[in-house]
Design goal:
Elements: E1 7-8, E2 11-12, H1 17-29, H2 36-48, H3 52-64, H4 73-89, H5 93-101, H6 106-117, H7 121-134, H8 139-153, H9 156-164, H10 171-183
Antiparallel strand pairs: 1-2
Helix pairs in contact: 1-2, 1-10, 2-3, 2-4, 3-4, 5-6, 6-7, 7-8, 8-9, 8-10, 9-10
């Protein structure tokens, strides 16, 4: 169960915000976001990480599914904030060019995360690979996100390779959960 993932034999593993987002993404993919709290926490987390398109999509899904009431003040505020951020940020293509010329892969990984949040898996995959080739990034984090983009794009073999490259806890366990989802029989 994804919700109890943080529990380990030797105590509780504290997940950072990026790691929580990776689990929220899996919960979204498996349609297991339980209630407005899950949707709002997920949307708020990705919005604070600079991913307003993903936050907006999550909020709209929660409202469409009846999980977030249309009168929810936090949801209304987040929707307004994400709309403003999306307009102010403009297209990601400018960041792509900067990422290609940067000495390390940090900007490429961040831009790939934004593309992943927009469901543009081809661009996300391209930039995650660029980030790995340039270095200066957490390879486990980038490989996990690369695997997510590949799995969601339908490239199961590529995703399996990327997930297998993740070696450290708790990202390893998250990669294993994504692998289990990817390999599960269609419902």
């Amino acid at each position: 169960m994804i919700v109890t993932f943080g529990l380990q034999q030797n105590g509780v593993v504290t997940l950072d915000e990026t790691q929580k987002i990776d689990l929220f993404r899996l919960m979204r993919q498996t349609k297991s976001l339980a209630d407005q709290n899950d949707y709002l926490e997920y949307a708020d987390s990705v919005n604070r990480r600079g991913l307003p398109s993903e936050a907006q999509a999550v909020l709209k899904e929660g409202m469409a599914a009846g999980k977030i009431p249309a009168t929810n003040t936090m949801a209304k505020t987040l929707l307004a904030d994400t709309g403003t951020a999306i307009r102010n940020d403009g297209p990601l293509s400018g960041l792509e060019k900067k990422a290609a010329s940067n000495a390390d892969g940090k900007l490429a990984a961040g831009t790939a995360d934004a593309y992943l949040g927009q469901d543009n898996y081809a661009k996300a995959i391209e930039l995650y690979r660029l980030a790995l080739s340039k270095g200066g990034v957490n390879a486990d984090d980038v490989n996990l996100h690369l695997g997510i983009a590949q799995a969601k794009s339908g490239d199961k073999a590529g995703a399996a390779t990327s997930f297998a490259a993740v070696k450290t806890t708790p990202r390893l366990e998250t990669a294993q959960l994504w692998t289990a989802w990817m390999n599960a029989p269609a419902a």
